[in-house]
Every structure is written in structure tokens, then in C-alpha cells.
Amino acid sequence: MTELEAPEGKFIEVAGYRTFYIDRGEGPVLLLLHGASVAIDAYSTWHSLIEALASRFRVVAFDQPGFGRSDMVKDRRYVNRLGRVPHALGFLDALGIRRATLVGHSEGAFMATRMAIERPALAAGLVIVTSGGTAPRLGGALDRGWMEASKSAYDYGGGADTEDGFIRANGSLSRAADPALERLLRGNYRRAAAAGQIEMFRNLSADERDLDLYVRLQETHIHPHLAALETPTLIVWASSDPTVPVERGVALMRLFPRADLHVFGGASHMVMLDRAEGFNRLLAGWCAGRR
After folding, report:
1. Per-residue pLDDT tens for 54-76?
2. Is residue 155 part of a domain?
3. Region 2-16: what's the mean pLDDT?
4. Does some domain include residue 49?
5. For range 78-92, the mean pLDDT
6. Which pLDDT value is given to residue 176?
7. How many domains does the chain have?
8. Containing domain of residue 83, as a range?
9. I want to staple 237 with a disulfide (CB 3.0 to 4.6 A). Which of 152, 188, 244, 249 is the partner?
10. In angstroms, what CA-CA distances link 88 with 108, 119, 120, 147, 152?
11. CA separation for the pair 290, 30 (Å, rounded)
12. pTM for the complete prediction?
């Protein structure tokens, strides 16, 4: 077994869910929030960052309910990104963490941003990574391209129908060709199938399947609050993610009073894997600079 196949972690009870988490290092806390798709979890998302930054920070990452090694949601119905925020806040409370830099990828970035809005004193910093679940729409015909790309990338009825199909679909979200990561994702897929997660994604509500309705969640619960958000914010984007083009990252940046935007070339949706060394250096430097 490679290290990618066996993440060392612990379990803690949060809001009635046995929750798996990884806790490495000492120092200022970085809380890492993964996104949402079949077989996604904290370790598959953040493994390239956890050990790299644990020498300078306390790096904490957890599997949200319905993902990874944490309990499946009780009614096996998908809990959207807003509904997962109370569990994330409860997780921090359970560990006694009162201050952290909140780092979120994809739907995890919506969660991180909402947590900063709800608890400003908690958020030492906010890092938003390639997040269609947080970014604004562009308007009219400008949204057609990314909406079509998103429908294709997150086709749970087709792309995730088999293990090999899932691996092929996942290849559209990352440019990192890593045999160890593929083995990890295959194991994650089998765990997801056994837990009923794949079926949960196939039965998503209209609010999750209809992209017009999907974006309304951030338009209601995120965008109106950003002008008043004083949390230092770093937005990290990929140059080659058709589901979240750079223009959406720029539009998101403009909603903040002060935010930095960094775009990585040669990267797709999983930018923290495609450009691991640069991503880790950027994040460590940004966090250290604020200290």
C-alpha cells in the first residue's frame, strides 16, 4: 500500500455523525474543506498539501457527512453546501478550534465563505479555490460554456456509472497523471458504492441539477455579504477549468472589498494537485505574510 491508500486519522462525533479527520502539525490552524462529488474526500483533495505544510501549521481536514470515511447522511439524501455548514462549525467546536484560516475547494469554498460570514471572529483568513459553487454567473450567453462543461463533468448518471467511467470522468478535472492517486480514487469509488453515495448523487434534487437554481444559493447566502466581509481573502483559480473559467474568478474577486487573485497556468479544477508545489508555496507564503 502507498501512503495515498492509507490516510492516518481519527474519528469524532459531530452532530450525530461519526466524522473522520486528519490533524497534523502545530501552529496556526489551516482548516481544509473538500468539495462535493462522487468518491471525493479530504485526503484525496488535500494529500499533497497536508504533509507539506504541517511543519509550519496545524493542518486539519475532515470528511463531511456523506463523504469518505464519515457516516453517510441518515436519509441518504444529499445535503447541499449550505446545509453542511453547521456540521463544519460543530466540528471546529468539538476540537476546540476558535481561530483558523478557512481553505475551501469547489463547494468547500462556499462553506468556508459562509463560515466566515457567520463567524467573522473565527476566520483568520479565507482561501477560495476554483469554486463554481461560490463564483457569480457572468450573464446571458457568457454562461453557456461553463454550464455545459459542468453538466458533462458532473454527469452522475453516466460518468460515475462504473469505476472505469468514474476514473475517466475524473481525468477531466485534473491534469495530474498519478498512478497512486488513481488507486486511491478507485478505493474511494468502491467505498462510495458500498455506502450508497453514488446512488445519493444520482438522486440529486432539482436545486442541485439545474445550474440556474444551483447558482442562486450563492447569490442569496454569499454574494450580498461580501462587501462587508473584512476577512483577508485569497482566491486561487486555474487557467484551464472549463467548469469555472477565469472570468468567474475575476467576477468573484470584485465582490470583495479587498481580495487577492492568483491564477495558475497549466491547471484544471484540482489545481492543488496539478500545481501542488506552487499552490503550497503560495498558501504558506500568504498565511505567513498575514502573521
Report:
1. 999 999 999 999 999 999 998 99
2. yes
3. 82
4. yes
5. 98
6. 62
7. 1
8. 3-227+245-290
9. 249
10. 10, 12, 15, 28, 29
11. 13
12. 0.95
